Amino acid sequence: MKSTLSIVDKHTLGVFSIIGIVTIFIIHFILLLSPLFTIGALFFLFIIILFLHNPVYGFILIIISRTSVDFLSSKFSIYITDAINLNLASLFAILSVFLYTIFLLNNRKNILSVPLIIPFILFIALTITSYLWSVSTITTIQETLRITSIFFTYLVAYIICIKDITSRKTILTSILFASIIPISFALFQLITQTGMTDATGLDGRLFGTFAEANGFASFMLVIISILLYNTFSQKNSIQDNKPQLTLLGLSILLLLLTFSRGGWLALIVLLGVFGLIKKPKALIAFTLLFIVLFFTSSKIHDRIEDVYNPPADSSIRWRIRQWNDVIETWKLSPIYGHGGGTEIIIHEQEHSYLSGDPYTHNDLLKVMQETGLIGLALFVFLLATTLILLFKKYLKLTNKNDKLFVLITLLLFLAQLSFGMSSNIWRGTAVEWIIWTLVACALSISTSKDSQIDRV
Q1: Fewest CB atoms less than 10 Å from the CB: which of 40, 247, 323, 429?
Q2: Could you list the residue range(s) of the whole structural domain that residue 189 is in?
């Protein structure tokens, strides 16, 4: 199918494909590269070809691929020099920024109409400027590239939705399909009891295809949000949505079995506020479910009890100590910080690389440590502006389905922010790509009476 957004004609694309394939195999045989590397190169070439031919499908494939290989992101690297290497996550970021730049140049007339441009650009500009005083210039460049990939993902998604209204449904459907592989891995981990074990000795934590349980919990929040929209959309009664309800129940169960307290809090924010506004009866059902699980599951009971009565080795106490350490380090450079993306390096410099988990586990403190009070102010400006725009969009819309979608996107964004107060949500690029894609879909909805998002 030819897309109205196509960037390159079929003839040029065919020639490029042949040259690309031949080049990859020549390099493979000359340098005697690993077959795995060659397969990866061919897959990246396929993404490039698909994106240039049909940006919507190419965009979707990039998102699906990134979420499916998150746990491999730090396991495969290309070493440029002894000090510089590109892992799989960096390669995906470079690929996405490259392709999205081409797309944005091809649609440059639409860029200025996209909301949130100023907050994003200001935050990215400060991050790249922090290169001048960063404790690790390479790391700051990588962080700038990562944040830019999030920004460009948002821009591309918004322009795609504006130019092709039907692409919203395609994107939402594809995100659900993207969950098949992570959920399948999680179910395998559940059945075989091969979930991860954390530092406190808690075993069996589901993590799907993600690097850790919190990342999978954050991803499942997105899936739950889309299923919530499908289940309660105007055109369908609850009785007609038994498959959706089953999937919704399964997704909630898998999130609970990550044993991520931050994820549980985010789920309560999402379902609790949604129930209060739209479905009080559903809120009662969710509340009863949490009460039953609290009294029937010893692991869930113990995780909740640790919050108000934490033992000496509790992760709650550890987080408080970690946050205090971060604040002390931030005081050394309170205005400008130590450089974007440098939280691990700062931790190792202050406490050695043998001192345990180097991550901040608080998005606001991480940003404040790396880019100072200026960076924190710009980051909060971005988040607050996003919430305000989503709320204003919700108030302006008249179509019930569109209002429901914007409301759920707003609640998802709010839930992820609450999750980020005790976890590393902002640095989870794969999920951030999806979240900001949904924000773009929501903000691009016209205020006309006709529904622009159908149930998927």
Answers
A1: 323
A2: 110-312+350-443
